[in-house]
Amino acid sequence: MYPMYPMYPGVPKSSRKLSLVVLALLTLLPSLAHAYGSSVHRMVNRSATTHLPATFQGFSQWVGDLEDFSTAPDERKCCVPGESIKHYIDIDDYPEFFTGTLPHSYAEMVAQYGQFRVEDNGTVPWAILASYQDLVATFEHQDWELAVVSAADLGHYVADSHNPMHLTMNYNGQLTGQYGIHSRHESEMTSRHLAALEPAPGTVTLITDPLEAAFAWIDEVYPGVDQILAADLVATAAAGGSTSSNTYYDRLWLEVGDETTAWIRDASLTLASLWYSAWVEAGSPPLPGDATDAIPALAESKTRMLANVPNPFNPSTQLRFELAHAGSATLQIVDATGRTVRRFEFGFLDQGLHAVRWDGTDQSGRRVASGVYAVAVLDDRGASATGRVVLVK
Ligand SMILES: [Zn+2]
Question: From the CA of 100, how far away is ligand 1's center (Å)?
Fold first, then answer.
């Protein structure tokens, strides 16, 4: 009844052919990831549906898609610029982290450390915030297809940030002579104990500030860096220097199995809480199939701009629009003086909702000034509509 057509908001759908190619890449490429093994990502997204309260239980109807899309962010690393830095934060590169004075807003971080260092150290807290905001917006529009994609993305980043080795400069033990510990812990060890890692059903909490929440759980998970590195040394010694034998992995599990189980359970519960909080923030819209859900009238499709997310924005925002019918379309961004600063040309798009990310640059890749911009969508039958976006710096 609600078939899933995955839409990847970060991928400009400049033509039907391109979107099919990208979709094929996204679904067929093996994960190149250093992330919790794909089975853990699947487990976190799947098990999160078991914690949902009765009022929001209907969201679990998409459990299969939430699970299948759980690794999409890793698969996008190959092809979507800026994706790879969203999976981690080398938070111990910032001395202020240890004194509790690290700023949490992205703009303040960039002001204090410069954009290069902030991006180089990874941006997972803000990727979580952006996915959460996308999820609120898709719930507001009752756009369930996009909601599931955003919810699955959110689950990926939440899981990554519950892995201590995604929170440190020494992410692969390279600074302490323990090269390879990253995947030994997160992939090989976890794959040997999947059943034990499965989180039991729990209870969600309402999260009012996702970014603060993310920094709070990072504080709690971070001490795991030392625990994992110490466990690796103990296990290596117990295995007579081997880091690949059963003896090594049995001992590693004995040392940090309980902690790892707790991190994954926290990720699963936090994810369910964020999904639920996003739905509440969006006004608790009825889910398809809910008893209270009146049969929705088929909305008349028209060419229009939807609110971009986020707005105001910096550094990027998702421009959303709807086409009344399939065909070519143009998206044009115009500054306050009437000058077109950026055009997106789409050779062929399906009827319905579409999204494209704008990174605040003009046609030649330069950052445009802060201010108000008009965005106009024009379809190939001449219908057009405009919206307003605000870039802040
Ligand atoms: Zn990842």
Answer: 26
The rounded Å distance from CA 86 to ligand 1 centre is 8
- Report CA(38)–ligand 1 centroid distance (Å): 9
pLDDT beyond 50 at 295: no
pLDDT of residue 69: 96
Tell me if 119 sits within 8 A of 135, measured CB to CB: no
Q: Are residues 174 and 52 in the same domain?
A: yes
How close is the Cα of 165 to the center of ligand 1, in Å? 11
Q: Residue with structure tokens 């964020």? A: 274
Counts for the chain of helices (H) and strands (E), in that order: 15, 7
User: Rounded distance, CA 155 to CA 366, Å?
Assistant: 33
Q: How far is the CA of 147 from the centre of ligand 1 (A)?
A: 19
Other Cβ atoms less than 10 A from the Cβ of 186: the count is 24
Number of domains in the chain: 2
Is 287 inside a domain boundary? no
Report, as an integer, the average pLDDT of 58-81. 94
> What is the domain extent for residue 358?
301-391
Residue 46 contacts residue 63 (beta carbons within 8 Å):
yes
Judgement on whether residues 236 and 314 belong to the same structural domain of the protein = no
- The answer to whether position 45 is within a domain reads yes
Q: pTM of the full predicted structure? A: 0.68
Domain membership flag for residue 133: yes
